[in-house]
Each structure stands twice: as structure tokens, then as C-alpha cells.
Amino acid sequence: MTTMRLGESDLEPTRVILGAWAFGGWMWGGQAEEDSLQAVETSLAAGIRAIDTAPVYGFGRSEELVGKAIRGHREEVLIFTKCGLRWDRDDGELRFVSHGPDGSQQPIYYNLKPDSIREECEASLRRLGIDCIDLYQVHWPDPLHSLDDAFGEMVKLRDEGKVRHLGACNLSVEQLETAREAGFIVSCQPQYNLLDRSIEDGILPWCRENGVGVIPYSPMGRGLLTGKISATHEYPPSDHRSKLPDFQPGRREAILAALAEIEPICLERGVTLGNLAVAWVLSQPGVTAALVGARNARQAKENAVALDVCLDEREEQAIRRVFEALD
After folding, report:
1. Is pLDDT of 238 > 70?
2. Which of 16, 124, 284, 319 has the largest CB neighbor count within 10 A?
3. For residue 192, is it within any domain?
């Protein structure tokens, strides 16, 4: 399987990383435990050697399932997780209100206070059943608490051997500068796909220039770029996609039309639209790996195919032109 060094670290993940957000069921309309465990088992069997999760994904549930799934396989896989979003402490600024596991309204708070970060790290280690997290990342910047203090505490956790390397998700270029100065980050995790290419204007070139690895999430646009979601499909209120602009029926029709334009490349290569969307992200200079979610063994097996798809410049540009026209 193709791997690439992550920034200036000694981590070398496969270029497809299993994203475990949906494992927690939270914001995805529910999830069966056995499906999650089989997604991990199938991913490992296919050669994928890194998993990305977070405490807030299912309020600890995703980390618990990842921990259960990798039991006996710890040496085979890199584990990435995060800090900074709390459902179990309210001493931060409110980010949003979501559906809890029991269907009740659950507030989610930003919290990058040093004591909260340490508390989260210890809890993540317990849930995952491991002694050290390979990559520990700020999940979102906190409007109330400084990145300097946050990364100062994360450096302490690194020095204590609880984490190996530090990273950051969803930060601006200015915030990445602060994070790098405060804690020597090795990675950045932004959203990036054919429908959202905004990091090309600042974050992606900054990371290339500063030796910071880029591991984008949502390379398949939360499933929209697979071509499997019809224009009329209805999502339950507990599924966050029901509120996103790209998932509204009229917009979905336009996206499906764009996908039809690039489908000949899929047929020529014998791959799916989802594979092509991931391969396009991986073809961009500066991208180390892509986080690709899987909810079951079938999706995990399909996702691994993207590792072997290398687009040439003609194909990359042809795909880009289609989606630039969609903008």
C-alpha cells in the first residue's frame, strides 16, 4: 500500500486513512456496532494502516469502537484523535446543539483550556485502550481560550509520552502560524474535495512551504461525490447532511450532472466515482493522505481501491474543470 511521510514527523500513514466519525452514530443517523468493527477489520486487511477519530464522535463511542477493533493489532495501525469539543463540560463557548445518543438535545462546547485538554487525552487513552496516541490534534479553534496555552499543554503531553506528534484541524493560516510556533505541529486537517477547494487559496500552499502534512477530511463530500445519493433522497433530522447547502435537492441535481461528465474516466479505469474523488484529492501537491469514512465492510473495501488510482495531469485537470464550472 502507498504511504507518505506526514510532515516532518516519523509517521508514515497509508494515503487513505479510515475516518471513524460515523462509528459513533452521532450526526449520521445511527450506526450498528458490528458494522463499525467490520469496517476496521476490512480496512486493516486491505492494507490501510491509520484510523482517525475524536472524542465527540458519538460522545466517546467512536473511540471505544476503534479501541475494541484494534485490540491485538495495535502495532499495525496509527491512531489519530483530537481534543477541544466537549459535551460533558459547559465551561466553554457553545458551538451548537445536537441530538444526543438518546435523542435529546445535547449542547457541544468549544474547550481548549489546558486542564480540559489533559482530561480529554486521558479519557481518549482509556477508551482506545492504548498507551500513546500517534497524532493528537486540536479539533477546532476555541474563541475563548488561546492556542498558545492549548499547544503548551499538548507539548507537555507529548513530553510525557502520552502522544507522539501534534496536529491541528480547521485552522486558518494565521492560526496555523500560531500553532506551529507554540507546539511544532506536523499536520493540518482541513475539509477539501471537489466541491470545496477553498484551502487552495492559502492553507494548502502554506503547508507545502512549511513542511506541514495535509490530511483532508470529506474527500467524497460526505458521500455526495459517490453518485449514490439521489436528488430526492431524504435525510432524518439527526443526520447533519440534511441541513448542508450541497445536500439540498436542486444542488444535488447539479452535482449529479457534473459526476455524469467525469464518469467516463471511471469506466476507463474501472473504479467508482468515490474512488475518483479521493484520487483527485490525493493528486494535489502537498496532500499527504485523505481521511475516508466507512460505515461497513463494503465501503471500507471500496475505499481502499483509491490507493491504487494515480491520476495523470490530463485527468486531474479535466475533473477540475467540470467542478469549477459547477461553482
Report:
1. no
2. 16
3. yes
Residue 67 makes CB contacts below 8 A (sequence gap 6+) with 127, 128, 129, 130
Residues 297, 38 contacting (CB under 8 angstroms): yes
b/e code 6-32 from CB counts within 10 Å (16+ = b):
bbebebebbbbbbbbbbbbbbbbbebe
Contact between 186 and 212 under an 8 Å Cβ cutoff? The reply is yes
Q: Which residue has the cell 513530553?
A: 159
> Residue for cell digits 467508482?
272
Percentage above 90 pLDDT, the chain: 83
Which backbone phi and psi does 141 adopt, to 5 degrees?
-65, 150
Q: How far apart are CA 79 and CA 76, in angstroms?
A: 10
- CATH number of the domain at 194, please: 3.20.20.100
110 annotated active-site = no
Mean pLDDT for 49-74 is 96
| pLDDT for 240 beyond 90 | no
Contacts of 115 (CB under 8 A, 6+ apart): none
Q: What is the rounded average pLDDT of the residues 189-209?
A: 97
Q: Which of 211, 217, 220, 160 is nearest to 189 (CA)?
A: 217
Could you give the number of structural domains in the chain?
1
Domain enclosing residue 76, as ranges: 16-326
Which of the residues 57, 109, 192, 217 is marked catalytic? 57
Amino acid 230: pLDDT = 76
pLDDT confidence bin for 159, thresholds 50/70/90: very high
**Cβ proximity of 15 and 289 under 8 Å:** yes
Tens of pLDDT, residues 21-46 = 999 887 777 789 999 999 999 999 99
Q: Is residue 310 a part of any domain in this protein?
A: yes
Can you spell out the DSSP letters for 83-142? ESEESS--SS-EEEEEE-TTSSEEEEEE---HHHHHHHHHHHHHHHT-S-EEEEEE-S--
Length of the chain: 327
pLDDT at residue number 48: 96
Does residue 64 lie within any of the structural domains?
yes
